[in-house]
Amino acid sequence: MKSLNALIILWFVIQTLLACFFYFSSEREATFLFWIMVPFMIINCLGILFLQLNQTKIGAWMILISSAPFVPAGLIGVLGARKILDQLKEEELLKSLS
Asked: Whole-prediction pTM value?
């Protein structure tokens, strides 16, 4: 199964660009938002790492959790992770039927 999909990659790029924007902004509020984003970015990176290590379910859940606080942009990551979890359920169902 292909674990990484385009939605997850797109969300990672958007999240990284947002973090860079907040980090290089001169506003105090933006710096605060950057430090709020850092733990979620770490969880997102770990989720992608787990996906690459074939721990698909754990990785998808980590991406789902790290994307949820960033609605509406985070919905891209949520949809990508949900798509992977749905594929896992479908594969388990097909295994149980055969």
From this structure: 0.83
The pLDDT tens digits for 8-57 are 999 999 999 999 999 999 889 999 999 999 999 999 999 999 999 989 99
Alpha helices in the chain (DSSP H): 6-24, 28-52, 56-67, 75-97
Integer CA distances (angstroms), 34 to 9, 54, 74, in order: 20, 30, 15
DSSP 39: H
Any residues with CB less than 8 A from the CB of 52 and at least 6 apart, and which? 3, 4, 59
- Is residue 45 helix, strand or coil? helix
**Alpha carbon 29 to chain centroid, angstroms:** 24
The number of angstroms, rounded, from the C-alpha of 82 to the middle of its chain's C-alpha atoms is 10
Q: Where are the domains of the chain?
A: 6-97
Distance between start and end Cα atoms, the chain: 18
